[in-house]
Prior knowledge:
Blueprint: E1 3-7, E2 25-29, E3 35-36, E4 45-50, E5 56-61, E6 64-70, E7 76-83, E8 90-92, E9 98-102, E10 107-111, E11 117-122, E12 130-135, E13 140-145, E14 152-157, E15 164-170, E16 174-178
Antiparallel strand pairs: 1-2, 2-3, 4-5, 5-6, 6-7, 8-9, 9-10, 10-11, 11-12, 12-13, 14-15, 15-16
Amino acid sequence: GGFYFSDPVGPDARFPEPPPGRTSALLYLTPDGRVIKPTGDTLSPNGVQLTADEKTLYVTNGQNIRAYDVQPDGMLTNGRLFAESGGDGLAIDSEGRLYSAVGAVKGIRVIDKTGKILYMQDSRGRDTGALYSIDLATRARKLIAENPRADLGGIIRHPTEFTLQAVSFDYTRIEWTVLDESIRGEALVRPHDDNV
């Protein structure tokens, strides 16, 4: 098969001052070796991530992430706003959550399949990274956990509901903050299964 890639232009790109006429582009290398633009949308792409079923392509586009339906020939249709969150690199986990590395906040944003930002590690205006939740509908930002001595290290999440149950902070030793009282006592002995 083919693959998608971005060719960004700008101060942090390989060609901060591109040749005349060259603009940022989302590109697709077809199985027969041709490079094409898979959409007519004007984009400023960076991160690109295909879902496991290869039906949706996520593309960072400035201060948002767009989603596209992937056609059998590699062309993209139905471009739409997926999340109002910029980013650099993208990754998807086995549950379909999208992870966006966001250099501006020195953190990772975790976004569910609906495009709602679930959790974000943020260190802006702080000495250490803390965990926040953000509701995109209201823009409400809520501090979930913090530690004045250490950055966020890992999380424990419910095995089927995927809700956060505890978070760890790594200083001289791993310290857990229990978020879900139903697991108090076992959080200190369970290894963390995710990193934020």
